[in-house]
Amino acid sequence: xxxxRVIGACALGVLALAPAPAxxxxxxxxxxxxxxxxxxxxxxxxxxxxxxxxxxxxxxVRPRAAAWLMVTRVxxxxxxxxxxxxxLPWRPSSASGWVSGARVRLEPTPWRITVSRAKxxxxxxxxxxVVMKSRVVIGAPATPTPRGRFAVLWVQPWSARxxxxxxxxxxxxxxxxxDTFNGGDGRVAIHGRGGASLRDPxxxxxxxGCVRVPNAVADRIVRRVGADELLGVPVEIS
Length: 238
Known about the structure:
mainly beta, L,D-transpeptidase catalytic domain-like, globular
């Protein structure tokens, strides 16, 4: 578990849907081999359902809260406009909503990360094929790593000798038992290992909920995928 670097504010209210040019949805929605991500370049209203003329908003996502969002579904409304359902960066970890395809830039990604709590392992997949795997440290029984479908929210280089290791991948996942941690939100991350965290061997369950990987693995993931290209990538924790 670590302190969250960025937090987005959620403003509830009723918003009138601004006219947007028609945009064709992707020919195929997310699959096991191909995911989609949506770039947030400006504040984007989020709706609980596919909007008609006026709907109650589920909030607003701003670039500082999430530069890219994971797309979970695509659809067209009655007027043929594209809408995408996205995983949101705030609590609960399952929070989702609909955003206009005209307000984001959609991009496919072949990458996916899976974490098995039972096997205490992480896999990096490209086009549905495993291209990298590693043993990991998962959450302790009292502070378990949450199960679910999440996304990489932000990526930040760290110090290889520090507790968090060489890289930190903040996720849309939140601890189910810790509302806050170390003065910040109880957000779950995938991060490296250094300093005192090396005392917990790979394959153990001793973290506050985060998934710890060897620094060499974190480095290889960033080199292979790219730090910016990791944003919005699905992370399946089972």
